[in-house]
Specification:
globular, 26% strand, 12 helices, alpha/beta, single chain
């Protein structure tokens, strides 16, 4: 079979590999459509803190069950499925408490193990969700990143009627915007360095947008809100973005960090303490979030045409990764024929 590998920094290649055989409790899945994640681009650049090169990417995926391994239950050959890629031990404290996204032995399918950017892949049945008939492959392949936004907004608490700021209008920022609007946020401001991304956020429904590089943004927002934003979602996770998010949220607001930072950042601890800013990390999701994402997709409430901006064949993976690095792009998908 064919498999995409990120062989080294800046090097994407299509290689031949043995088609894997499903082990006990696993199924063999034929890939239909798979997305390039922001984490894949960080890894390609050599800046992802948790992905070592070389690796075989692909975790935003929809496919069809091709074969069942021994004792594999719950699915049949021909079923269309999507992947919840957190591979967990099920035994540690976080797993036992239901917060298995924080598993002490967590591996992520397509990050620390071979992924779905291939003709076929194997995975335990417990990591699969059935795809409703009403969903297109394009919609189903967006469920995984949408689950990230679902988890972050759930951690944020009540959103209805609140003033929300989203830093970063990449795919996760746009999906967080979609979820916040659906949840009834009174005002959703989006910042980004790239004008085309700001325009895309406005088309989706952002109340207003600002250039994230403008140092006046926190002051402008505080003046408009007559105080702090209730919630700031940092989908960038850089030194500049987290400082700006905290400044936007003082006094008494909450900052949810969604983006994967490339390394340590300095925090204005005096403001966090003195202005009672709540700082909350958000890591992946659990099944509750995935099911909520599927339901939102079933309601056709996600503007997929704004989020999926380019589609390529699997054999064009190198070009697809190059296009995905274009700041004007949102989500790039690979279709496996």
């Amino acid at each position: 079979m064919r498999r995409v590998e990120v062989a080294a920094v800046g090097e994407v290649r299509l290689v031949e590999a043995e088609t894997p055989a499903p082990l006990a409790g696993e199924v063999l899945v034929r890939t239909r459509r798979v997305g390039i994640c922001g984490s894949d681009l960080h890894a390609l650049a050599g800046t992802h803190p948790f992905i070592d090169l070389p690796y075989a990417p692909g975790h935003e995926v929809v496919g069809t069950v091709e074969a069942l391994g021994p004792d594999a239950a719950g699915f049949s050959v021909g079923d269309r499925v999507l992947v919840e890629p957190n591979l967990v031990c099920g035994k540690c404290g976080p797993c036992r408490s239901g917060r298995y996204n924080l598993c002490l032995r967590l591996q992520v399918f397509g990050c620390q193990t071979p992924g779905a950017m291939a003709d076929f892949f194997t995975i335990p049945t417990g990591r699969l969700h059935a795809v409703p008939e009403a969903l297109s492959d394009e919609e189903a392949a967006l469920v995984e990143p949408l689950s990230t936004a679902m988890h972050a907004t759930r951690l944020a608490g009540e959103i209805a009627g609140r003033r929300v700021v989203i830093l970063g209008a990449g795919p996760i920022g746009l999906l967080t915007l979609t979820v916040a609007l659906r949840a009834g946020a009174a005002d959703v401001t989006v910042t980004d360095l790239v004008e085309s991304k700001r325009r895309r956020a406005e088309r989706i429904g952002a109340t207003r947008t600002y250039d994230g590089a403008d140092p006046d943004v926190p002051g402008l927002l505080r003046e408009r809100f007559d105080g702090p934003a209730d919630l700031a979602f940092d989908c960038v996770s850089s030194q500049a973005s987290v400082e700006q998010a905290i400044e936007i949220a003082v006094n008494g607001g909450k900052v949810i960090v969604i983006g994967v930072a490339r390394g340590p950042a300095r925090l204005p601890l005096h403001l966090i303490q003195d202005r009672e800013v709540a700082l909350q990390g958000s890591a992946m999701y659990v099944g509750t979030d995935v099911r909520a994402a599927i339901a939102l997709m079933e309601a056709h409430a996600v503007p997929t045409a704004e989020i999926v901006t380019s589609t390529f064949e699997l054999g064009e993976a190198e070009r697809a990764f190059a296009v995905a690095r274009d700041p004007d792009q949102a989500k790039v998908h690979l279709v496996v024929a």
